[in-house]
């Protein structure tokens, strides 16, 4: 499933595409919201692994504006609930992720991203 928790780790790996290849940009997406169990301790522990600006930009591409541009100093319950929603409850079912550098497209079908590359694209 393409959720923003996963998307925040994905970069383009086409041969020669080594700069400005993250984050992948969403286009023509269909999303589905699915409830997930709220676990504030998991979220606090995962925070240092997040590329914040990429997460905020991706969530806005998907129509969610609940995250602040900068990580707040106080990780209160309201913030953590918004983060939980963005990371774990927004599922991209269909669409395309495009590399901002080489413009390679990674299709998403039935919630699964196709990250496989053709032989000539592998570096």
TrEMBL record:
Example of a GO MF term: protein heterodimerization activity
Highest taxon of source: Eukaryota
Gene3D superfamilies referenced in this protein's UniProt entry, alphabetically: 2.20.25.10
InterPro entries the record matches: Trm112, Trm112-like
Pfam families documented for this protein: Trm112p
GO biological process per UniProt: rRNA (guanine-N7)-methylation; tRNA methylation
Protein family: Belongs to the TRM112 family.
Assembly mode: Interacts with TRM9.
Full protein name: Trm112p-domain-containing protein
Protein source organism: Lyophyllum shimeji
